[in-house]
Fold each of these.
Amino acid sequence: MNPLARALYSPVLDSAVAGPTARRAANTTRFIYLDPAAREFFVDYDRMATDAAAMLRLEAGRNPHDKALITLVGELSTQSELFRQHWASHNVKFHRSGRKRLRHPAVGELDLNFEAMELPSEPDLRLNLYTADPDTPAADGLKLLASWAATRAVDNTDTRHVHDVR
């Protein structure tokens, strides 16, 4: 993630249940189903929850022996009735592009376009791009969020290790 993506997804990354730990990476699906804050963050929460389970089912079909995926599905199945319902529907979704509406705590509502691109040289990786239509409140929000991200980066700088090279 670049700094702007980290700022955009800060509610997920800062989540006690979905954010990164020593044991695991941050996980948006875990956030959707296990963190009540997801209902506020995702404007279209119901669609996001349905799509998240369908995308997991797609991945399970591609990689049926993936231990991390099996663990995640088990965790969500035991902790979320909503996930169990969506998983039981057996929907599968290949999610490449569309719109995502977020309610960011620092900049408000963002109506964004997204595109997910497969990387042929790295089959397990996907590049997700988010853009806002020009001259919209979302474009202004992304600019503000970029400024906020830069401020957070400065605030998190460890000044004990500044080196002066002359």
Amino acid sequence: MEAKYSRTDLLLGEDEARWLRKQTVTIVGIGAVGGYALEGLARVGINHFRLVDFDTVSASNINRQIHALESTIGVRKIDIAKKRVLDINPCCTVDLYPEFVCSDTVAKLLRHPTAILVDAIDSLSPKLALLEEAYRLNMPVVSSMGAALRTDPTKIRVADLMETCKCPLAKHVRKKLRRRDIGTGITAVFSSEDVIFDYHKQKQVDGEDTRQFRGRQRNTLGSLPTLTGIFGLTVANTVILKLLESYRTMVSSQC
């Protein structure tokens, strides 16, 4: 039993923990939610990550993103993330994809097998393109909905995307995916906290430096580091449980 994973092994058992560490997880969006999701999964010992993000750290990221520091402003998020993961687990394989997700790139980004996909994108069109492609590929997904504007961590929920409620982003995603003949099967982390926000009102880019910006302008929304962090760790926990469920199903089918 390796010391740094001993607490996980004691909880799950060595067989399940060892199998868990052999899985590949793809995370798209290494920002507030995605960064904390990666942190939780790296510390449980996942040995292979594929990280997708084209963006660099800006000063406005510091209030909520685990990789954002004064010393990392201007650095690619995936480069910082890889360095941190390897400091946690030097044996980990971390593949980097500095790509913008859209209908033209998503097939290439998802062409490699992965045990599960984490969607931590905060822009609607790229999110839709990613979820549609993953659905067509029958790829297991844990998708984060809106973490901004919330203050109550007890309202964070995990459910099928089509059963989410009170989340403006989830509402738009559900509606547009249904138009693409996509139904149940996408796991979502969302908040049932009441928020007042109209996605059709004026929009502006998040952050002072817009040179790396692509796609439609995003809403600049207020957020707490606590809520986005809890969102990300809830995503990580959901991934762990789903992977363990698949392992137990596989074992029981062999008995």
